[in-house]
């Protein structure tokens, strides 16, 4: 295939692995490589990435700020569904991959490239997420996955290759890295090495986006989040852009020890994996969204959403963001959010996100109906008798017939 490829767009982080991949692609395929680096709010200065790519002989270098698009078009739609994978994971890594893949394909079209490449390993989920997205957006694109092709089997092999090709290596990359970290505006995930034993508690230095709950202030922090049609739009009455709002929530979550998660998850490729995840702002947003829905969603809609959500979460986790079934579900979810508008008041305290108030102009909550005092004139308590008898009919028949 090497002589068939003319130009490659590489998803490039500037780290050891993708820098080696960059040189390896040039040597193996003897063609031009374009680098693409996405700023998804990972908290790093990306100008050195541009300089490193230039030093490695790259002429076409893309470093794109995608933070607003990431939150607006990927994070928010996912959170409108209250999405969690296997009951706990807010999908911070999974939701970033389709956007990276989308931009890679756009750059390939723009630059005339006929192939794309990524640095995901052959054991993880990301290779699946990237490649399913590539194919969904360009069925004819050629895909290069170096970790499934090259002869390197260890980090020592990578370092030896880097040194022999004058590829700069950060001092802390010499030898085995203690663990790997993936970060963006929604979360940070740490996996591998010292984290792999699910019995051993993760040490404090692993966490980067939150302080320990026991170190959080002894006084709670109150915050009000405003929603419009299922999306958070303001904090304490101040309207913000999607990325600015999530950044602000991240700061509040960080300072109050909110959003830590230690989990063992089932990877799509078949194995279990232990990871330490931090989603400070996302955790606050998730709790707040469910709270405003509790006022504004009809019971049938709310329960149906909860039934559909695990399937929706699995689609995102497994890499099917651009699938027709995900888009079909998204349309139903978005229809449910037409009246999900209002304000939620939360108390953040030592790792906890506690709902203490909620209000909405189109609230379905009626104190007149629910009160224990004399309430709505059109509610007849005696109606409950027939309601209960009808619902009990099958239970009575079951007992009478079967004993």
How would you describe this protein?
The chain is α/β, with parallel strands linked by helices and 403 residues long. It has two domains: 2-78 and 93-177, Rossmann fold; 181-297 and 340-359, Alpha-Beta Complex (Argininosuccinate synthetase, chain A, domain 2). Helices cover 40% and strands 19% of the residues. The chain contains twelve helices and 14 strands. The strands form three sheets. A five-stranded parallel sheet has the order 3-2-1-4-5, sandwiched between helices. Strand 6 and strand 7 (188-191) form a beta hairpin. Helix 3 (67-80) packs across helix 7 and helix 9 runs antiparallel to helix 10 (324-336). The protein is elongated and about 85 Å long. It starts with 6 loop residues before the first strand and ends with a helix.
Task: Spell out the key features of this protein.
alpha/beta; Rossmann fold; 14 strands; 19% strand
CATH architectural type of the largest domain: 3-Layer(aba) Sandwich
- Total strand count, please? 14
Q: Can you tell me the CATH topology of the largest domain? A: Rossmann fold
Write down the Rg.
Answer: 25 Å
């Amino acid at each position: 295939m090497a002589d068939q490829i003319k130009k490659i767009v590489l998803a490039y982080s500037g780290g050891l692995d993708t820098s080696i991949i960059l040189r390896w692609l040039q040597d193996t395929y003897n063609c031009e490589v374009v680098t693409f680096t996405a700023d998804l709010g990972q908290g790093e200065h990306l100008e050195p990435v541009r300089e490193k790519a230039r030093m490695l002989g790259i002429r076409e270098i893309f470093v794109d700020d995608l933070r607003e698009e990431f939150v607006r078009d990927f994070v928010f739609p996912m959170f409108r569904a209250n999405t969690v994978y296997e009951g706990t994971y807010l999908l911070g890594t999974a939701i970033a991959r389709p956007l990276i893949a989308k931009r890679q394909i756009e750059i390939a079209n723009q630059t005339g490239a006929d192939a794309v490449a990524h640095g995901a390993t052959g054991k993880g989920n990301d290779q699946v997420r990237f490649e399913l997205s590539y194919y969904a957006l360009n069925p004819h694109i050629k895909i290069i996955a170096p970790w499934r092709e090259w002869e390197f089997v260890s980090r020592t092999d990578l370092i030896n290759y880097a040194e022999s090709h004058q590829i700069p290596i950060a001092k802390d990359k010499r030898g085995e890295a203690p663990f790997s970290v993936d970060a963006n505006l929604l979360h940070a995930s740490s996996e591998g090495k010292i984290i792999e034993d699910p019995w051993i508690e993760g040490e404090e230095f692993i966490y980067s986006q939150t302080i320990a709950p026991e170190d959080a202030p002894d006084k709670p922090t109150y915050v009000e989040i405003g929603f419009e049609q299922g999306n958070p739009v303001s904090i304490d009455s101040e309207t913000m852009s999607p990325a600015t709002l999530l950044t602000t929530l991240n700061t509040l979550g960080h300072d109050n020890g909110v959003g830590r998660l230690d989990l063992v998850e089932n990877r799509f490729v078949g194995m279990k994996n232990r990871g330490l995840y931090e989603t400070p702002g996302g955790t606050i947003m998730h709790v707040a969204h469910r709270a405003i829905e509790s006022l504004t969603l009809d019971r049938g809609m709310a329960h149906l959403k909860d039934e559909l959500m695990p399937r929706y979460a699995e689609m995102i986790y497994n890499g099917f963001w651009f699938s027709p079934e995900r888009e079909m579900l998204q349309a139903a979810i978005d229809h449910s959010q037409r009246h999900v508008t209002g304000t939620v008041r939360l108390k953040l305290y030592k790792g906890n996100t506690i709902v203490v108030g909620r209000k909405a102009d189109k609230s379905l909550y009626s104190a007149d109906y629910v009160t224990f005092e004399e309430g709505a004139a059109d509610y007849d308590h005696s109606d409950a008798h027939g309601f209960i008898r009808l619902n009990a009919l099958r239970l009575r028949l079951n007992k009478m017939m079967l004993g």
